[in-house]
Specification:
The complex is a heterodimer.
Chain A (H helix, E strand, L loop, with lengths): L4 E13 L4 H10 L3 E14 L4 E5 L6 H9 L6 E6 L8 H5 L2 E5 L11 H11 L4 H14 L15 H13 L5 E5 L7 H18 L2 E5 L3 H7 L2 E6 L2 E7 H7 L3 E7 L9 H18 L5 E6 L2 E7 L5 H11 L4 E6 L2 H18 L1
Parallel strand pairs in A: 3-7, 3-8, 5-6, 6-7
Antiparallel strand pairs in A: 1-2, 1-4, 8-9, 10-12, 10-13, 11-12
Helix pairs in contact in A: 6-7, 10-11
Chain B lengths: L1 H18 L1 H27 L5 E2 L2 E2 H18 L3 H11 L2 H5 L5 H31 L8 H31 L3 H14 L11 H8 L8 H8 L5 H32 L6
Antiparallel strand pairs in B: 1-2
The chains are: A alpha/beta, B mainly alpha.
Chain lengths: 352, 267
C-alpha cells in the first residue's frame, strides 16, 4: 500500500437552521424550516504516505476537525472518495477504529476516575493487544517519558499536561498505523509542549506511525512536521513540505522599527495611530508594493516582499520621514508565512 | 475475540461505580426516604378499606413488591439516556464511536457493569432485609433462578428502550424533556411505582401490549407471586425474550439510520 490515507475531492456540507434573533425569533425557530447549507469542507484532496507527520493547519473554523472526523469515519462526506488503510472509514468505522488512534485536544478517552494503568489495561483488552506487545509498548513508553509515577494516579487528579501525555500514549498503545492528534498541545506550558513534541517524534520514528496533527502552535509545526497542509473556509490553500513553504515565501523579510523611546508608556490609541501613519507613509512612498504592518511589543513590524521593493530602500525612506530609535531585521518565521497565507486568502475573497 | 472487550467494559464500569462510594450511599439514603413515603402512603390507602386486601394484595404483599421494585430500580436504571445525551452535547461521543466495538455494545456492557455492582451493593442487602423482616415471605426455590433470568432480560429491554430514546437525542440535541417523559412512562407502565394488580382492567390490558411491564413487573412476579406454574413462568420469560430480540433489532436499525445523519458538536 503506497498511501495510508487518500482523499479525493472530498466535500462535506452541513444543514444549519437559520436562527432568528431575540425571544420572538427563538419561538419562530421552533417551527422554522429555513435551512442553509454550510460547506465545511470543499473539494479537499490529499495523499499521505506511511510514516509521515503532516501538520494540518488553518484558522479556527477552517474545517480541520471536520476533515479529521471524516478520516476517522465519524462523519460521512457529502461527496468524494476516501480510503484510510485501504478501507472506507465511514462504512467500516468499527474495524477502522482498530487501525487508528485519536487524541482530541480537550477531551480524554481515558476512564476519568480510574488510575492510568487501569485505563491502559482496559484498552489492552478492548483493542485485543497481546501481552507481549503490551509489555513492549509500556517499556518503550517508560524509556521515553517518566510515565511510571503516573500509573497509579486517577485521570481526574492529573494536570492538563499529564492528561494530554497519557492520552497520547493511550492513542499509540495498540500500535495503530495512523494517529490523529487534534490540537494536542493546546493550553500546555512550554516544557510540557517540548516533552509532548519529543514524544510524538520518538513514537513516529520508533513505530513508523503516520501522524496527522492539527495545531495553532507553529512551534509544533517547526518541531514535528516535514509536510504541511493548510486549509481555510473548507478549501485547501497549500500542501507541500515545510522547506518549500519557506523558500516559496523566501522573498519576504520583516523589518522592525521602534519610533518611540518609551513605547510602553503610550496608550493603544496613539500606537494604533502611529501604525496607521506608517502604513500611509509606505503607501505614499511605494505605490506598487504591498506591506503588512503589525505591532510587536515596542516595535512596529513591516513585512516586505523583496521582489517588489528592497528592504534597505524602505528603511532609508522611513528614516527620512520619521525618527527611528531602533531597527531589527528578521527572516520570516513559519508563523508569519502562514499568517500571510491566511490573509492572502482573505483578501482574495474580498476582491471577489 | 469480542468477549475480552466486553469483559473489560464491564470491569471498567464496576470499578468506576465503586470509586463513587459516597454517591452509592446517597442513592441508598434516597431510596430509604422514598420507601418511608410510600410506606405511609399505602398505609393510608389500606386504612380506608375493609378486610385489608386490595385487588388480591395485602398491605404486606404491596410493601414487599414496592420495596423490591425500588431496589430493582437502583440497579436497573442506568441513566443511559443522560449518558448518551451528554456524550452528544459535549462531543465525547466521537471518542466512544472510535472504539473498535459497535456503539450499542460499548454502551450495553458499560451499563451492565454498573448494574452488576449496584445489584450486589443495593439489591442483595434489600432482599435479605425484607426476608428477615417478613420472616421469609419471599419464596426461595427455583423462582430465584427465574428471577435472575427475568431481571437480566428486563434489564436488556430497559437498555433497548433507553438506547432508542437516547438515539432521539442525536436529532434533538437535548435530553431533559425526553428523558423525563420516558422515565414517567416506563416507571408507571412497568409497574415500578404502582403494582399492576391495582390497575383498572382496561388499562391492565393495554399495558400488557407494551414491553414495559416485562422490565419490572415480570421479574418481581417471581419473587412475590408463589402460585406461578412452570408453564406460566416459561411463558413470561419467552415473552421477555421476544421483546428483547424485537426491540434490539428495531433499536439497531433506528441507530444505523440516525448514525448517518449525526453531526458531532464542537469542531
Amino acid at each position: 500500500m503506497e498511501y495510508v490515507i487518500e482523499l479525493k475531492n472530498i466535500d462535506k456540507e452541513f444543514k444549519v437552521l437559520n436562527r432568528h434573533e431575540g425571544l420572538k425569533g427563538s419561538f419562530q425557530d421552533l417551527f422554522s424550516r429555513d435551512y442553509k447549507v454550510i460547506k465545511a469542507v470543499n473539494n479537499v484532496s490529499m495523499k499521505i504516505k506511511p510514516g509521515e507527520i503532516v501538520g494540518y493547519l488553518g484558522p479556527n473554523g477552517a474545517g480541520k476537525s471536520t476533515t479529521i472526523k471524516i478520516m476517522t469515519g465519524v462523519l460521512q462526506p457529502t461527496r468524494g472518495e476516501i480510503l484510510v488503510n485501504g478501507q472506507i472509514p465511514y462504512k467500516n468505522r468499527t474495524s477502522n477504529a482498530q487501525n487508528i488512534g485519536v487524541v482530541f485536544g480537550q477531551r480524554s478517552q481515558l476512564w476519568w476516575s480510574l488510575p492510568l494503568i487501569e485505563s491502559f489495561k482496559l484498552l489492552k483488552d478492548i483493542y485485543g493487544i497481546s501481552d507481549k506487545d503490551y509489555k513492549e509498548m509500556l517499556a518503550l513508553y517508560e524509556s521515553l517519558v517518566d510515565i511510571k509515577e503516573l500509573y497509579s494516579k486517577p485521570i481526574r487528579q492529573m494536570s492538563l499536561g499529564q492528561r494530554t501525555l497519557s492520552d497520547i500514549l493511550a492513542a499509540f498503545l495498540h500500535n495503530p498505523p495512523i494517529v490523529f492528534l487534534d490540537e494536542p498541545t493546546i493550553g500546555l506550558d512550554v516544557s510540557m509542549k517540548a516533552k509532548i513534541r519529543n514524544l510524538i517524534k520518538a513514537l513516529n520514528k520508533e513505530k513508523n506511525t503516520t501522524v496527522i496533527l492539527t495545531t495553532h502552535d507553529m512551534g509544533d509545526v517547526d518541531a514535528l512536521c516535514e509536510r504541511i497542509v493548510i486549509i481555510d473556509k473548507g478549501t485547501m490553500l497549500y500542501d507541500n513540505d515545510i522547506n518549500h513553504l519557506k523558500s516559496f515565501f523566501g522573498a519576504y523579510r520583516t523589518l522592525k522599527i521602534k519610533i518611540d523611546k518609551h513605547a510602553e508608556e503610550l496608550s493603544q490609541d496613539i500606537r494604533d495611530k502611529e501604525k496607521e501613519q506608517i502604513e500611509n507613509l509606505l503607501k505614499e512612498g511605494f505605490e506598487a508594493a504591498d506591506f503588512t504592518v503589525g505591532q510587536d511589543e515596542d516595535f512596529y513590524s513591516i513585512l516586505i516582499d523583496e521582489s517588489q521593493v528592497h528592504l534597505m530602500k524602505v528603511l532609508q525612506y522611513l528614516q527620512e520621514k520619521i525618527k527611528i530609535y531602533d531597527v531589527l531585521l528578521e527572516e520570516i518565521s513559519t508563523e508569519s508565512v502562514i499568517r500571510k497565507i491566511y490573509e492572502d486568502a482573505e483578501n482574495l475573497k474580498k476582491k471577489e | 475475540m469480542r468477549v475480552r472487550a466486553w469483559l473489560a467494559l464491564i470491569r471498567a464500569a464496576i470499578m468506576e461505580f465503586l470509586q463513587f462510594r459516597v454517591s452509592a450511599l446517597v442513592m441508598l439514603l434516597g431510596n430509604i426516604i422514598y420507601l418511608i413515603v410510600i410506606y405511609n402512603l399505602w398505609k393510608a390507602i389500606y386504612a380506608s378499606v375493609d378486610g385489608g386486601v386490595v385487588n388480591g394484595m395485602s398491605f404486606n404483599d404491596t410493601m414487599i413488591y414496592l420495596v423490591l421494585a425500588s431496589a430493582q430500580f437502583t440497579f436497573m436504571e442506568a441513566y443511559l439516556v443522560w449518558e448518551m445525551g451528554r456524550a452528544v452535547q459535549s462531543g465525547k461521543i466521537v471518542l466512544d464511536l472510535l472504539k473498535p466495538i459497535p456503539y450499542e455494545q460499548y454502551l450495553l456492557f458499560g451499563m451492565e457493569g454498573g448494574n452488576i455492582a449496584a445489584f450486589v451493593v443495593t439489591f442483595i442487602p434489600t432482599f435479605i432485609i425484607v426476608q428477615i423482616i417478613t420472616k421469609g415471605a419471599i419464596p426461595m426455590g427455583i423462582n430465584l433462578v427465574y428471577y435472575l433470568i427475568a431481571a437480566t432480560l428486563g434489564m436488556l429491554i430497559n437498555f433497548t428502550i433507553d438506547f432508542m430514546v437516547g438515539t432521539i437525542c442525536l436529532y434533538t440535541q437535548s435530553i431533559w424533556g425526553i428523558n423525563i417523559m420516558k422515565e414517567v412512562v416506563v416507571l408507571f407502565m412497568s409497574g415500578a411505582t404502582v403494582p399492576l394488580a391495582f390497575f383498572p382492567e382496561t388499562l391492565k390490558k393495554i399495558v400488557m401490549f407494551f414491553p414495559f411491564h416485562s422490565i419490572y413487573n415480570t421479574p418481581l412476579m417471581f419473587l412475590t407471586n408463589s402460585s406461578l406454574t412452570t408453564k406460566d413462568s416459561l411463558l413470561m420469560i419467552l415473552e421477555q425474550l421476544l421483546w428483547v430480540i424485537g426491540l434490539f433489532i428495531i433499536g439497531k436499525i433506528f441507530w444505523k439510520i440516525s448514525e448517518r445523519t449525526i453531526t458531532v458538536n464542537g469542531g
